[in-house]
Amino acid sequence: MERYLSEKEYLIIIIISPKYYETVTASPVGLENDERTFNTVYIHKQLQNEFIQNGSKNFRFIPILFPGAKKCHVPNWLQNTNVYGWPRDRDDILRRLMRVEKYNPPPIGELPTIVSIPI
């Protein structure tokens, strides 16, 4: 797990659900003391730190709202990034994972000829 977090070429899917939001925003006193909770909070903090170190620019996180989750369940630091909905945005998610653009720009044509006429 540490390797995938530290190697920047990997894209990371963040599944957003009410339970995830509750886990990562709860005070440490109110958290369950199980391994899943500790791992979830640890990974969340690592991802948040990377986001902040990148100047609040999202280069590799793919937040996905699962059914039952709403935009308010997205952690604050991911609110201004593209959040996908599952299964509605399935094709866009796959394009993002495969690093394929949705729209391809047209080829660049010839440069226009500029004619200067003295006045």
UniProtKB/TrEMBL annotation:
Positions of the SEFIR domain: 1-95
InterPro entries xref list: E3_ubiq_ligase_TRAF3IP2, SEFIR_dom
Highest taxon above the source species: Eukaryota
Example of a GO biological process term: humoral immune response
Protein name according to UniProt: SEFIR domain-containing protein
Species of the source: Seriola lalandi dorsalis
